[in-house]
Amino acid sequence: MLAEGFEDEDKWLAEGIAGIQHNAFFMHRALDENNLRDALKYSAQMLSELRTSRLSPHKYYDLYMRAFDELRRLEIFFKDETRHGVSIVDLYELVQHAGNILPRLYLLCTVGSVYMRCKDAPVRDVLKDLVEMCRAVQHPIRGLFLRSYLSQVSKDKLPDVGYEREDGESNGVMDAVEFVLQNFTEMNKLWVRLQQQQGPGRIREKREKERNELRDLVGKNLHVLSQIEGVDLEMYKDTVLPSVLEQVVNCKDELAQFYLMECIIQVFPDEYHLQTLETLLGACPQLQPTVDIKTVLSQLMDRLSNYASSSTEVLPEFLQVEAFTKLSTAIGRVIEAQVDMPLVGAISLHVSLLTFTLRVHPDRLDYVDEVLGSCVKKLSGKPRLDDNRATKQVVALLSAPLDKYNDIVTALTLSNYPRVMDHLDHETNKAMAMVIIQSVMKNNTYISTADKVEVLFELIKGLIKDSDETTEDEVDEEDFNEEQNSVARLIHMLHNDDPEEMFKIICTVKKHIMSGGPRRLPFAVPSLIFSSLRLIRQLQGQDGDIVGEEVPTTPKKIFQLLNETIEALASVSSPELALRLSLQCAEAANDCDLEPVAYEFFTQAFVLYEEEIADSKAQVTAIHLIIGTLQRMNVFGVENRDTLTHKATGYSAKLLKKPDQCRAVYACSHLFWVDDQDGIKDGERVLLCLKRALRIANAAQQMANVTRGSSGPVTLFVEILNKYIYYFEKGNPQITSSTIQGLIELITTEMQSDSASALPASDAFLTSTLRYIQFQKQKGGILGEKYGPIKVHIPA
User: Fold this and answer.
1) Residue pLDDT, tens place only, 702-717
2) Which of 113, 274, 329, 514 could pair with 153 as two cysteines, CB 3.0-4.6 Å apart?
3) Residue 738 CB-density burial (10 A; 0-12 exposed, 13-18 middle, 19+ buried)
4) How far apart, in Å, are the Cα atoms of 424 and each of 417, 430, 719?
């Protein structure tokens, strides 16, 4: 039944439009003939079509617009008294004799709009008369459109600045304001009454939509008010705003309250909002709990923010009216009043307030911290956020200061910042920590005090420590590596030129990263070690024997810390990394001339090599690192150096594969010949190492012959030959031309004995070596003379 009624609306609308067109035709003919009597008769019949109650608001609007267009023509006819021969005063009385109330009032509004243009017309009385008589129509839709017509035809005739009555008794601007306010109030009542006509289900939804489409009819009254020049700040503050807000609050309708609050904010000037902030905000807690107040307040704060950024001259006004305090108080009251407001709504309000604060008062960090503190109060007592929308709002809240200041140091001074982060779930907390680190890196921000480092690491603790909620299986390996690499990069951004403060920073970082568990240490420890080594080199030369009330930071103190850190790293299955870092520390101790410290780190490296590194490839890499580092050390006395050198050569000879043994042993020869002015130069031990390498290479050849039936490549022999040549040129007396000649012949014989197994790489290597000798001979000079006795035959 209801569905059929809705389907019939199009038919009823068509009938109504046909009726308007039919009567409009006869009205036009009467106007052309200047026949006032017939014009009024047919216009009244035409307007009677608007008396229908069968149309929805949307369909009724279409019908109304047809009639409105015809009334414009009638208004033009009424203006020309010479055409109809009746004075406008008599015409105003005449149209009141129309039979039906609705056509009578439309005609009265039309004549009244013409009447108000007349000189010495009683505008105040006409306005009062029209707005009062329109009360006769109480049907919501018919009354709403009638008053909309009244507003439309009168808005350009309202008395404004410069208007004066001859009797001087009336304030024209106040008359206009009272008229518009009264019309607005009545229209809003009619609009709200439409809600009571709604039925259940689908029809209700349709009516709600149609009612929403009619809201502009009501809102236009506020726009008319804002266009009256005589409405200055004082009148707006004393009359306009209180009256409008009274109607908004009293109507107790969710849709009306939300829309009208939006209208107030949009149509009136920013300056008026600022000066009447307390009044406007005072209405917010009185609105219905279901009103989307966060959007209203966000729009208000956005407008005020734009007003503040438009000119620096207006900023003192914000301080004078205490805008922040009033907004903050209002938001607190709204949250208290709307007990059912979802958490996301409350946080959104804080985000808007923080955005306002950062734009209007960027220098007031106390305001920023106050907003964060207010948010903490709202979040306290609640479990960790599990609402995605609320979580996003908290992230927006925390990101706002970073985006504004581009400086994490500023955020670190906000005491409530970490307290807000504590309410995020573990994954979001990590994401926010990554945002903080990226901000530091992007803006190249250095954190220079231990206190700020402490706060910073509290903020990013989601990356440094495992959550109780997270299991190892849930962690994505790639994401985990990226997060830990970011933490490692962050450590390099912690710096202070003052050694004492820098040492405090290092101790703070160590405290935090040591609690990160075995998976995180290999990422963060190297950065900590190298930051510490940078400080050590800054302090280079201090021995720690300075006496005073407070022991200053010295390399020894830092080395103690590094030793503990590396031991912790070694205990979590990262022995290779721990060995590398031990050798780096040993080099730094060498530069500081601290022999016991350097010896301790070498001892630690050897222990790691012996007890923790089992993989043969890792052993080869480790022994070469040890040999290379030890070769550069000049701090050791004879006894300590001999001990370490003996260990290195011993481990070299115990490698699993013979070729690896050979290369490690001949590398050890450099431990006995350091090419510095004061470096060790023990030619005999160099020769012993090279001979031992030859024996191992020979054993490797024999093993190859047994296993593969051929002597194998001679690359090892050529490598050893190059070592002989190196020491020969450096002046090692134990390496003679005859020694080199014998080795060349040995290699040549080996290659000829089993040419099938020779590799092109070995051949090319040997050929290049022989050509080098030939080149030195031809070059002449002292070196050429040394090479003179050596005979080489370069194969074609």
Assistant:
1) 887 777 655 556 889 9
2) 113
3) exposed
4) 12, 9, 61
